[in-house]
Design brief:
There is one protein chain. With 139 residues, the protein is an alpha/beta fold. The chain contains 5 helices and 6 strands; from the N terminus they run αβαβββαβαβα. Strands 1-2-5-6 form a 4-stranded parallel sheet, sandwiched between helices. α2 (30-41) links the parallel β1 (24-28) and β2. The protein is globular and about 40 Å long. The chain starts with a helix and ends with a helix.
């Protein structure tokens, strides 16, 4: 996060016409978790996050327990997608807990998109379809 915020983003802003409210992140699997982390905990910079098959809770990794102790971001637009096949089945528990948490804190439904892709897999093929839909929704 520090390298992105202190080095990469300022360089991109100096080179391109980037609106600060349009800075977002997208990732799948562990990258989906990183996208959630950046949007949730560094929301002053990352206003949008796309999390495809995010490993919110997996084995001994539990970002959910940390996330619920942090301040809820005010201006986050969030897209979360998980599949039903192969490895994604193992990630659904964490996704379900997180979505329940969003509902319990009245996170605005207009600011998040969530679905489970039937037969979606933990693969670039599924993620490319999911990314297209979520990017269109965010932008």
């Amino acid at each position: 996060a520090k390298a992105l915020i202190d080095e990469l983003i300022p360089e991109l802003i100096s080179q391109y016409r980037i609106k600060s409210n349009d800075i977002g992140t997208i990732g799948s699997s562990a990258g989906g978790l990183v996208s959630l982390y950046l949007g949730w905990e560094f929301n002053k910079i990352f206003k949008k996050a796309i999390c495809l098959s995010p490993g919110i809770i997996y084995r001994d990794q539990d970002y959910y327990s940390q996330l619920i102790k942090t301040k809820t971001p005010k201006n986050l637009r969030l897209a979360i997608v998980n599949g039903t096949d192969n490895f994604d089945k193992n990630l659904q528990y964490g996704v379900d807990k997180f979505i329940s948490y969003l509902k319990s804190i009245d996170f605005s439904k207009k600011n998040y998109m969530y679905w489970i892709e039937k037969d979606g897999t933990h693969s670039s093929k599924s993620w490319s379809k999911q990314a297209k839909k979520t990017i269109e929704w965010l932008y």
